[in-house]
Amino acid sequence: MPRRVLIGFVTILVVCILWYGMTTGLGIIPSGRFPSPAETWSALIHVSGRGYGGGDLAIHVYTSLRLVVLGFLFAIATGVPLGLLMGWSRRAEAFINPIFLIIRPIPPLAWIPLAILWLGLGDAAKMMVIWFSAFVPSVINTYAGVRNIDRPVLEAAYMLGMPKARFVTEVLVPGASPMMFTGLRLSLQASWTTLVAAELVGAFYGIGRVLNVAQQDLYPGMILVGMIAVAILGWSTTKALGMAEQRALRWNTAALAARG
């Protein structure tokens, strides 16, 4: 782990040196096309202090983070049970899968006009778009996780007459967990990508609002600040999900070993 951290630190340092050299040092890239480190720092001070796009950086970060977390949680609450049901029951798959195959290819951003029409320009419309973008990967990977459970494990549970509730909590969920968390990571990434696009239209606060106003003002430094903020928030939430995955998979392994 220390070696990986050191390599990552060196990589970031090299990128920063190249960034400074190409902009401020040699002037190869003009500031109108890509901001220098000093211009980016000035934009960060601007949005953190006086504010930009209707609010300061803390308000924008809180708004975007709240939308992503709520949309992501709603997607988990609906997508994971649906994936478990489709993977477990052939009958449920026969009823649900045709509808799912129709809506699956629709890009999440295509729902923005309908979301605004149904829910207005508030947070609910943005959460709906985020929900859809995170919903599809969670369903697909949970379904695949259930179908990848070893057949003898399922047959043994059926032969023992395990109640359905125990079957779900002790067989389906632990067996599908690795693929399930893969889907959750994809869902979280899709949530951040969709959030920025959703906030470009009709948002009063948020990182997407900052990017939209900065683009209209031709403010490259602020655009880069918004991009860096999304990168940091995305990395932080992915790291938190990874820690939850480690704890969950470790618990499942210990529980299975204890029962064995």
- Counted by DSSP, the helix tally is 10
> How far apart lie the N and C ends?
33 Å
Average pLDDT works out at 85
Topology, number of strands:
0
Q: Determine the fraction of residues in helical runs and give it as a percent range.
A: over 70%
Catalogue the unreliable spans: none
Gyration radius (Cα, Å) is: 23 Å
Strand content: under 5%
Shape: elongated
Mind telling me the CATH class? Mainly Alpha
Order of helices and strands: HHHHHHHHHH
Largest sheet: none
Q: Please name the fourth-level CATH homologous superfamily.
A: MetI-like
CATH topology: MetI-like fold
Structural class: mainly alpha
What does this structure look like?
This protein is mostly helical. It has one domain: MetI-like fold, CATH 1.10.3720.10. 81% of the residues lie in helices and 0% in strands. The chain has ten helices and no strands. The chain has helices spanning 2-25, 37-49, 57-88, 90-103, 112-119, 123-147, 151-159, 164-199, 207-216, 220-259. Helix 2 (37-49) crosses helix 10 (220-259), helix 3 (57-88) crosses helix 4 (90-103) and helix 8 (164-199) runs antiparallel to helix 10 (220-259).
